[in-house]
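Weekly structure sync, notes
Attendees: PL, DS, HV (note-taker this week)

Item 1: Flavin-dependent monooxygenase
DS walked through the input record. Source organism listed as Streptomyces yunnanensis. Sequence as pasted into the shared doc:
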Amino acid sequence: MSTTTRRIAIVGAGLGGLVCARTLQQRGMPVTVFEREATPDSRSQGGTLDIRDDTGQVGLRAAGLFDRFLALSRPEGQEMRLMDRSATLLRHHRPEPGDTGAPEVDRGQLRALLLNSLTPGTVRWGHSVDRAVPLPDGTVRLAFTHGAAEEFDLVVGADGAWSQVRPALSDAQPAYTGVTFVEAHFDDVDRRFPAIAARAGQGAMWAKAGCLSLMAQRNAGDHLRVYIGFRGPLDWHQGIDLADTEGVRAHVLGMFEGFDEGLRDLMRHNDGAFINRPVFVLPVPHTWNRIPGVTLLGDAAHLMPPVGVGANLAMLDGAELAQALADRPDIDDAVAAYESVMLPRSNGQAATTADLLAALMPDTDSTEPAFPDVLG
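Item 1 (cont.): predicted structure, written out as C-alpha cells:
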C-alpha cells in the first residue's frame, strides 16, 4: 500500500496528535484528526509548558515548526525560586542568556501554532469517538457517539487520560495517586498584585512543606496560574460546593495555616473559580500486545504525574510515529518499530516521575520542604 493511499486517523487534537498530523503531512501522507471539542476555542487549554530540547523540541523540529516555536517561547520563564513555608528562599535558578534548554510557552499558543500549520480541514471538530473496533482484515472501525462510523488502516489514540481508543489495546484504567492540585489564576498581575508578581519573577515560584505545595507560574500576557497541591482523598471536597469560590478559598486557606501570609495571598486574591485537578496515572509499566491497525501516543499510552514530562513525550511520540510510517511501507512494521522505542522509554519515565511525585508530595506531616535535587 502506498504511503499516500493509507487511511490514517488520529483521535484527539492535543499536542501529540497534532505533531503527528503535521509531521505526516510534511512527508506527503494524508491524515484526518477527530476532536470531540466543537471548536478550537471550546475551552481553556491550560497553563504554560517547558518544552525540552531532548523531547518536545525534537518533535517540533521534525514537524518543521521549531523556529516558529522559539519565536513564541519565553526562555526567561525557566527561572525558578524554591522556598519553604516561611517564604525563605532556598534555591534560585536563573537561566543563562541564550539558554533554550526548556523555554516556556503557553499550551494554547503552542496548540494554535500546530493547528494553523495543518492543511485546512484536517481536524474534524465535534467528532466524539465512542470506541475503536479492530476488524479481521487488519483495519479499524471508529464509531462516533453521534452514530456514524468510518474505517481506517491505522487509528492513533491521542485522546488523553480517558482515551476511548485505548480499550482496543489495553484494559488499563487511570488510578488516583492521592495527590490533588487546585488551580487558581490571576489576570493583570503586575499592575494589580505587584508583590505576588515579584515572588513569581519571570518564571515560577514553588513553596512547600511536607505534602503541602504552592506553585505560582507565569503565563503569557501578564497572567499567573497558581497550583495548590496536597495529599488527600479523591472526595477531599465532600461537603464543599466546588462552584462556591469563597467556600473553597476558606478550606484551602485552612489547610495552609502556618504558611507565610504573602504566600497565602496566592489563595486569597485570585480571579474566578478554583479548579479541582486530581492527579491520575496509568499503571507502570503499561504495555499491550500488538493489534493490527491501532496504537497510542501521549497520555493515552503513558499518563504520568504532571512534572514537566507528559506533553514533551507526547510530541516526541507523535513525531516518531509519523517518521516510522514515512520510512516503512508496511503499517504494522512501522507501528512495531515505533512501539519498540516508545514503550520502554515511557515506562522508564513513568517510574521516574512516580518517584519524583512521591518525593515532592510525601505522605507525611513533615514541615521540611524536601525539594529533590532534580529541581536544581
